[in-house]
Amino acid sequence: MFKIASRVAAVSAATVVLGLIPLAGTSYAAGCYGTACDNKGPKSTGCEDDAVGHGTVNNNGRVAELRWSNKCRAAWVRTTQKATPSYYDSYATIEKYDTHGKLVRSLSVDTPGKYNESDWSNMLGGNDYSYRACVGFKKDSGAPYGVQCTNKWG
């Protein structure tokens, strides 16, 4: 009986210890990785923690910044209202391009209406893509300005 109890205890201890060892290639700090980050939020996944900027464009006081997380391998756009007053409604987009330069997908977010407020889009991810951020004005706002974008990065 003692041998059986000892073996059960040893197997239980080994199971607990093995459960604590991370698997190769697994990112525990981030909630997603690469294309699994598509349409997920950078804050809720923890991807914002190591984010760096890769280009900014200012379109008449509406700023769009291309953001990238190395641990998540994903990009998004952060937009900030720098116009005062803000007469026209605007938006920012994150665009994802394949290796042939073809637009694969884009996501957008409205620029906040109050001065110096920021917001961000959901992410688009993957290593074999390039990305750019754009900022433009809604057609029904009557704004006389076009869309402006950062250079592609990635």
Briefly say what this structure is:
The protein is mostly beta strands. The protein is built from 1 helix and 9 strands, in the order H-E-E-E-E-E-E-E-E-E. Mean pLDDT is 86; it is low at 4-28.
Describe this entry's structure for a reader.
With 154 residues, the protein is mainly beta. Helix content is 12%, strand content 36%. The chain has one helix at 2-20, and strands spanning 52-59, 62-69, 74-81, 90-97, 103-110, 118-120, 124-125, 130-137, 148-149. Strands 1, 2, 3, 6 and 7 form a five-stranded antiparallel sheet that branches. The protein has a four-stranded antiparallel sheet with strand order 5-4-8-9, with no helix packed on it. It is globular and about 40 Å long. It starts with a helix and ends in a 5-residue tail after the last strand. 32% of the residues are buried. The model is unreliable at 4-28 (pLDDT under 50).
Unreliable stretches (pLDDT < 50, length at least 5) are 4-28
Largest sheet: 5 strands, antiparallel
Percent in helix: 10-25%
Counting DSSP E segments of at least 2 residues, the number of strands comes to: 9
Q: What spatial form do the alpha-carbon principal axes imply? A: globular
Q: Structural class, judged by helices and strands?
A: mainly beta
- Give the termini distance in whole angstroms: 63 Å
Q: What is the tally of helical segments?
A: 1
- List SSEs in N-to-C order: HEEEEEEEEE
Estimate what percentage of residues fall within beta strands: 35-45%
Provide the residue-averaged pLDDT.
86
- The Rg value, from CA coordinates, equals 22 Å
